[in-house]
Specification:
The chain is mostly beta strands. The protein contains 1 helix and 27 strands.
C-alpha cells in the first residue's frame, strides 16, 4: 500500500478557510523570493495596474503643497516572513499625508510607507486601520539618513516604533525652509508568469529567484536565467539600432590611416554615440555592423591599394571587418568618377559598454583620394543582436 500525506487545505472551503490560508493562496499567485520555506518570502511591491502611458500611477506620491503629499490609489503585496503575502490597497480615491514641521537647522529624511498591521499576530492597529499610509519621520542631520530600512524582498522590518510590515513608497527630504525633495522609491511585483513592470525604486541588479521570470526594465524585457538577468527583447524603435550616412565627400591622403566621418544621423539611438568619426557602444552585446563606402579612384596613378576596415580604438587595433583591393593603371582613360569602387562594410563584434570603433580609410595612390557620396552610397548601420 502506498503511504500518503495530508494536504494543508484548499480554497475555498466555506466557513473553514482563514486569513492565513488566504495568504497561502496569494503566495502561490505572486512572485516569490529567495526561500522555499512555507509562507515565508514573496517579493513585496506595488502592483502596477494604471498609468498615463508613460508611468504607473499606483501608490505614486507627489507633493501637493508645502509639507503635504498626495498618494494615488493602488494595491501592493507586503510580505511577512512565515505568514505569507498581505494584499493591501488604497481605494478608491487618493489620500493626503503631511510631514512634521520643517526642521530648524538641518534637513530631515522622512519615508512614506504602506504599512499593514495584523491584530491576530499581536500588532496594535492604529486609528487609520490595518492598512495605513504613513510618514515615518527621520532625524535632522547635515547628511540625513532614512529612518527605516528594507530587506531583499522589499519589506520594511526596522520600524522605530510599533509593529507590522510595510513597503516604501517615497523618500521626502524636508529642508529647513519647508521644501520637500521627493524621490520615488516604489518597487514592483507581479503575478507569477507575467512580465513585471519595473518602477523607479527597482534596481537593474535586483535578483529574481525563479528561472524564466521576466521583467520590463525599459528599454528591455529581461529573463532570469537562474543566476542573472539576460536581455530577451529590446522595446522601442530607437533602441538597439542606429544608422549614419556620409553626405559630404571626404578627402584623405596617401599612406595614412584616416577615420571616415559620418555627418548625418539617419536614425539615432541612445545605445550608440558618435563624435568625430568614433562610435561609442553604450549597450553591451554582439552588434552587427554593415554598410557601404564608395571611394573615387585616381586615373593614371598606376597600381595602388585602397582599404576600408572596421577597427576598435585605432586603425592598428583589433580589426573585425574590412576589405581592400588593387586598382590597375588606367592611363587617364577614365575619370575618377568611373574608377570609383564601392566597398562593403561588414562585421560582427561583441562590445562591452563604453567600447569604441571606427571605419578606417587607407590608400596608396601617391596622392589624395576622396569618397564619393553620390546616390547616398556611404552609409553605416549598427544593429544589436544579443547580450
Amino acid at each position: 500500500m502506498p503511504t500518503n500525506a495530508s494536504g494543508t487545505g484548499f480554497w475555498s472551503a466555506q466557513q473553514r478557510n482563514n486569513a492565513r490560508q488566504g495568504r497561502a493562496l496569494a503566495q502561490s499567485l505572486f512572485l516569490g523570493s529567495n526561500t522555499n520555506a512555507p509562507l515565508s518570502n514573496n517579493r513585496s511591491g506595488v502592483i502596477p495596474t494604471s498609468s498615463d502611458g508613460t508611468q504607473a500611477y499606483d501608490l505614486r506620491v507627489t507633493v501637493s503643497s508645502g509639507l503635504t503629499m498626495t498618494v494615488q490609489p493602488g494595491s501592493a503585496i507586503v510580505n511577512r516572513s512565515g505568514q505569507g503575502p498581505y494584499l493591501g490597497w488604497l481605494l478608491p480615491a487618493a489620500q493626503n499625508v503631511t510631514c512634521d514641521a520643517a526642521p530648524a537647522t538641518n534637513p530631515r529624511r522622512d519615508i512614506v510607507v504602506m504599512r499593514i498591521y495584523d491584530a491576530a499576530l499581536g500588532d496594535t492597529v492604529p486609528a487609520t486601520g490595518p492598512c495605513s499610509i504613513e510618514i515615518i519621520p527621520g532625524t535632522p542631520a547635515a547628511s540625513p539618513t532614512d529612518p527605516v530600512t528594507w530587506d531583499a524582498t522589499g519589506t520594511v522590518t526596522s520600524w522605530p516604533t510599533g509593529g507590522g510590515v510595510g513597503i516604501v513608497l517615497a523618500r521626502a527630504q524636508v529642508s529647513t525652509g519647508g521644501v520637500i525633495t521627493l524621490t520615488d522609491l516604489r518597487r514592483s511585483t507581479a503575478i507569477q508568469g507575467t512580465v513585471r513592470v519595473a518602477l523607479p525604486g527597482d534596481s537593474p541588479s535586483d535578483a529574481s529567484f525563479m528561472p524564466g521570470d521576466q521583467r520590463w526594465f525599459s528599454p528591455t524585457i529581461d529573463v532570469w536565467n537562474g543566476s542573472a538577468w539576460s536581455t530577451g527583447t529590446l522595446v522601442g524603435s530607437t533602441y538597439g539600432y542606429a544608422e549614419y550616412s556620409q553626405t559630404t565627400a571626404q578627402t584623405f591622403a596617401t599612406n595614412t590611416d584616416v577615420r571616415a566621418t559620418w555627418d548625418t544621423a539617419v536614425i539615432s539611438s541612445p545605445d550608440i554615440s558618435y563624435s568625430g568619426g568614433i562610435f561609442t557602444v553604450n549597450r553591451a552585446g554582439v552588434w552587427d555592423i554593415s554598410g557601404t563606402m564608395r571611394i573615387n579612384g585616381a586615373a593614371g596613378n598606376g597600381i595602388f591599394e585602397r582599404a576600408v576596415v572596421l577597427s576598435t580604438t585605432s586603425a592598428t587595433a583589433y580589426r573585425f571587418g574590412g576589405m581592400n583591393n588593387y586598382d590597375p593603371n588606367l592611363n587617364g582613360a577614365l575619370s575618377p568618377y568611373y574608377v570609383q569602387t564601392q566597398y562593403p562594410i561588414i562585421g560582427k563584434h561583441r562590445f562591452a559598454a563604453g567600447e569604441q570603433f571606427a571605419v578606417w580609410l587607407w590608400q596608396s595612390s601617391g596622392g589624395n583620394l576622396a569618397t564619393n557620396v553620390t546616390l547616398g552610397a556611404n552609409r553605416i548601420e549598427m544593429a544589436w543582436m544579443r547580450p
